[in-house]
Write a structure and sequence with these properties.
There is one protein chain. Helices cover about 40% and strands about 25% of the residues. It is of the alpha+beta class. The chain has one domain (about 10-125): GMP Synthetase, Chain A, domain 3 (2-Layer Sandwich). It has a four-stranded antiparallel sheet with strand order 1-2-4-3, with helices on one face. The chain is globular, with a radius of gyration of 14 Å.
């Protein structure tokens, strides 16, 4: 599977936990299906609270730096993305993490990099 160069640091950090397995991702593009970075992944069911802590800590850091975006984390159901949820094994849960701009803010490459690298660092710190 080819991974966009811009999102690769976050995908590698998430997979390094060994309790997350990424499924699809995008670095965000000016044209096409996704303007903002996202990762879809499976998380071991008994580690979901650890995932929540990582996302909460990263959100706090984004707020402290005055970042014009938030983390959007959604549970995926088979009615949303059938290939992900149906492929999840017993004891695994499918999620989507994305970057959401605040108040119609248009994000540039620097904002995307801040999102990706900051979030990646939080995953590495959990190992």
């Amino acid at each position: 599977m080819q991974i966009d160069k811009g999102i690769l640091p976050l995908v590698e950090a998430m997979n390094a936990t060994e309790w997350i397995e990424t499924n699809s991702s995008c670095q965000g593009h000016s044209k096409g299906h996704s303007k903002h970075p996202y990762v879809e992944f499976y998380c071991e069911e008994d580690r979901v609270s650890e995932l929540a802590t990582i996302l909460s800590d990263a959100t706090s850091e984004f707020e402290e730096m005055g970042a014009p975006f938030l983390i959007d984390c959604s549970l995926l159901f088979d009615t949303c993305i059938a290939t992900n949820s149906l492929d999840a094994g017993d004891g695994w849960v499918a999620f989507h993490i994305g970057m959401v701009p605040l108040g119609g803010f248009r994000m540039d490459k620097k904002d995307k990099e801040i999102f990706i690298y900051t979030l990646a660092n939080h995953f590495y710190e959990s190992i």
